Amino acid sequence: MFGFINKGLGKTAEAIKHIVPKKKLKISKDELEDILLETDVEYELVEVILREIYTDEVSREQLESKLLTALAYSDYKEPENISSPCVDLVIGVNGAGKTTTIAKLAARYKNQGDQVIFGASDTFRAAAIEQLDQWAKRLDVPIVSSKQGHDPSAVAYDAIESAKAKGFEHVIIDTAGRLHTQTNLANELKKIVRICDKAHSGAPHRKILVLDGTQGSSAIAQAKAFHEMIDIDAIIITKLDGTARGGSLFSIAYELKIPILYIGVGEQPEHLLVFDKYEFVSGLLDIIYFDEEETAADMAEQDENGMQHLSFEEKMKRLNQRIHNDGFDLLSKHFVREQSTWNEYRFAKNENTGVYEILERDGSVLRSYNIDEL
Ligand SMILES: Nc1nc2c(ncn2[C@@H]2O[C@H](COP(=O)(O)OP(=O)(O)OP(=O)(O)O)[C@@H](O)[C@H]2O)c(=O)[nH]1
Ligand SMILES: [Mg+2]
Predict the structure, then answer these.
(1) Index of the ligand 1 atom closest to the CA of residue 266
(2) 354 pLDDT tier (thresholds 50, 70, 90)
(3) Phi, psi of 70 (to 5 degrees)
């Protein structure tokens, strides 16, 4: 969990800390609006979230329920009864992180003891084939490829056939993110889907859309276009480590209603994390709010002068009351006045003992108050 926050939400956390530098028990609605907009939650969703909060101050529990509601459709369910091999078709625009994500998926499958084969169906660019080939070598994964310009669906077909013959559990197919026209791309993707099914009934089992996390909410329109071409089963959001737009996940999930399968948090094969909405939300809330378990002592320590904390404020209120009951009134932070005589005395916190004291002119203590015992 700690690693998850560090890797995936580092930049997003920085952006939030500009608005709320120190953890709090409650934040104002204005602060919440700033946090949501700053981390690239789309305004429509920001309005929905704010509209449903009826108090001026927002607690961790209130925000948690709203954020989880936005992620209601983000849960991914593994398709049932897949006859091996399971075929992943990976699509997305140029540079979204498809090929890198394919390597990450392969590393994951291999780690669980499964065997994987790649299909280099991005035949639009020679460099794309070359890049996947390099990952194949590095990860020791066999690859089916052909020359630039060849039929990508034929490559997909061969890769599936090869996996069947070898008894492999997984096929991962790379695709081109851009062709000369959008219609070409749509036709090509549809054809790959058809041919996969021909090679292995039910394939591709997962049509996975890779979205560039640094594009944030602006990737939504793009995702809709792909979803219209071929129904997307799941989304992987990459490069979250490099962006402060972590909040866009809420908009993406809320608008598209397509499950989020993984998030990419770096360039190495191990930098792919299963997306868990509870973990994600609690990771974000930890940046803004105190943990439920964090004690008042932790809060006082976090906050140098303590004044911002409710529990501390409550203590100060009680201190005031006690001083008043003892016949004094607090004039300022450092002076009290005796009600009966109107004499003024210095009032200060003893730095050595932490006790608050009303002091005579000669420095002797007239009254002392241990704030923790009030
Ligand atoms: N920091 C970071 N970089 C990533 C991540 N995923 C991919 N990248 C980088 O993003 C760049 C593009 O990734 P590719 O995997 O080549 O993207 P692609 O979608 O295959 O691109 P094309 O084949 O050109 O369409 C590369 O430099 C990757 O190393 C990630 O999760 N975090
Ligand atoms: Mg690629």
Answers:
(1) 32
(2) confident
(3) -60, -30
